Structure formats: structure tokens, C-alpha cells
DNA sequence: CGTATTTGACCCGCGC
DNA sequence: GCGCGGGTCAAATACG
């Protein structure tokens, strides 16, 4: 990629649709040269704001007129429960991004480009100070997922979105390249449960207290979009995710230089499809959850991404999937195999957008998402790309693009804050 | 027959 | 140092 060599627009033009580019251009105009998304809208509280909605509506209309298609209203109604997340002192209000049904989440999982790569573009090639607070990206939605992206223990690192690339670190950092990687990514595993459900924190616990202290301290230096990752060394079970919490969560954390994405999806299936092929290599019942946790490994050659899937202890319809690592490849094409015929049983392959799947990476790179999704969702899909593009300020979109480029830059990820749709709308509006 | 799943055993890190 | 629990391995089994 060319994140750091200044070829943003090259990638952009190659990977983005005109509409998306146009929308991004609008964002650019809005940003006043700085952080159009995250910086412009530090307020991440997702509680419905009538005025905001009204303004957003107007904006939506304008955007619709501008882009030439109807922009569906953001679905934030069900996000409200997640407000608990942000009311918890441990967490700072974070943006919520609604991912509507049918929207592909593969950008987050597949890629380097959507997450890690985005970071590579916004992170100065030089090592960042380790005193930046973790950042969190969260999205929640009526449909499927809420996302949390955080830097474990990383102090706030001002993401210079518009910072001119330096050193051409866009190159995939490899051991040979010696490209500077984001430091301190060997931070401990984040306590996902803490991130995802602060309510579940058990007060009185020594660890929790420590975590809370840590978080509070970190909160002092960050004003938004931050979830302070407690320095927990041991991964905590997700079983504490309560039903009254956000129903859909994606968390992205870092674990020893790998990215961890946590998704909670409402699904009847034990193993919601995400477009990638997985091979189950283990299953275990973990404490606190009668539902066994399944361990999957990406079957793609060379891909070491792992996936843990378990059902919410309180609501079996909620499936929590933890992706450990980032796919360095595009989702495999649909197979005419048994896997593809086992959709109803929760197999790893499902290309049916209407099925209860995450729809992760299911979209052929050469096909517009609009073509694959039910029409009502098509605009949302485009908007998803739009959001993601605007949010990450990425010139490239790994998903639905046929470049098939591989970005192995897991370590350059910044876990950049991604604003929720509301914030994006605000950004657009402004 | 090839591939995927199951499942008990084992390893290892963490907390006490 | 020990026990617990999470994660992984690998042989057996199932399936198409």
C-alpha cells in the first residue's frame, strides 16, 4: 500500500467508488485539515440527540442528493443499552458505529486495510510514545455488531490523520524491512469482558480494582473514544457479557502484536459465517458459561488467524466471536462444497446475505455490495464503506476490491478510533 | 478418500 | 509450588 508515501489518492481512486470518493472529499472539506471524524467529534455518546438526528436527517438528505442515492438513517436506537458502557467510569464514551444487517464486517477482520492498514497511514512511521491511552472503536447496531477497538495499555496517541506520511512505512513491515512498528504492542491481553461490558466487572475484585484505577487514571488524559485496557494478563471470559448490555459488539484489542477483534452477534447459528473458512480445532467449556467455547483456525494457507466462538451465557442467541489476528488475505470464494451447504447448521461458509450471518468478507471483490444485498441494504452497504473510508481516512478499501493486496501490517495498527455513524453524519453535516 | 469435526489429553501462564 | 483454567494438539470419528 502507499499509506506513507503520499499516494493516498492513487489507492483511493483504485479502490473506492466515485460516490465514496466524493463523500470522502466532503469529509476532507469538513475536517479543516484535521481529524474530520475522531477529532471533530469527540463526543461519542450515542444517546439519541433529537437535534442531532434532525440535523443528521437534513444532512442525510443533502448527502443523498449529493451522492445520488438515498442514505438510510443510522440505526442507533438499540445502541442505547450500550450507553452503559460509556457511563462506566472505566470507559470513556466511545463512538458507536451501526453495522446494519447485510453489511460486511470483513473490512475489520480481513484487513489490514480497514484497521491495521488504516493505522499504518495515520500512524507516524516513527514509534509512537507509549503513553497514549488505548483507543477504542465501537460500533453497535440494530443488526449485528458493535465494535471496540482499543490499544492495550497504550496511552493516547494522537492520530495524525492528515499527518504527511513519513518514511514510507506503508510498506508491509516485515522482519527484513525493519519498518518501525507501533511500539508496545506486546502489551498484555486486554480483558475483553471489561472492554465489552464494564458492567460485568465485579467490584471488589482485586484485579478489577486495579483495572479501574488504571482506567481512571488513563481517562484523565483522554477525553473521548477511549477504553482503557486494564493491564490484565489473562484473558477474561466473555461470559460476563450481560444481556442488557450492548447486544452487538466488536472489540478489537491487541494481543502480542496481533489484533483481536471481538464480535457479538445475534445469531441462531453456533458459528455465524464471516466469509472466511474456519477449521474447528478445539472446544472447551469455560468457567461461567455452560455454553462451550469453540476454537477455530482460518484454513487459508499461511493465515494464522484464530477465532473463538461462544454463546452469550445469558442469551444463547448472542454469539460472541473473538478473532485473534488479522486476515492477510481476501475471503475465499464461495465453495460448492459441503461447507457451503451447511449454512443452516452454522458452517463456516455462507454467501447468503439474507442469512443470519455476519456477512464478513462475503462479498466478491469485484461485485458491488449493492448488487448482492437486498436493495434496502445496498445504500447502507455503500454507506458502510463510506463510513469506514471516512473514518479511517483510508485511501484504500480492502474489501470488495479486487486488488487482493495483502497487508500484513498487523503491528502498525493504531486501532484508530472510528466514529459511530452519528458522528460520521455530524462530520458530514459540518 | 479427502476433509472437517469431536474430544480427551496435554501444555502453559497466572493467581493464590 | 501448586492448582486452576484457557488454549492447543492430535487421534479417532463423521461426513460428503
From TrEMBL:
It is found in: Nucleus. Residues 340-356 have a biased composition (Low complexity). One of its GO terms (molecular function) is sequence-specific DNA binding. SUPFAM superfamilies: WRKY DNA-binding domain (SSF118290). Keywords: DNA-binding, Nucleus, Transcription, Transcription regulation. Residues 267-332 form the WRKY domain. PROSITE patterns: WRKY. Residues 204-222, 327-337, 406-418 have a biased composition (Basic and acidic residues). Its main location: nucleus. One of its GO terms (cellular component) is nucleus. Residues 40-55 have a biased composition (Polar residues). Residues 34-59, 159-182, 197-222, 327-366, 398-418 are annotated as: Disordered. InterPro entries: WRKY_dom (IPR003657), WRKY_dom_sf (IPR036576), WRKY_plant (IPR044810). PANTHER family: OS03G0657400 PROTEIN, WRKY TRANSCRIPTION FACTOR PROTEIN 1-RELATED. This is WRKY domain-containing protein.
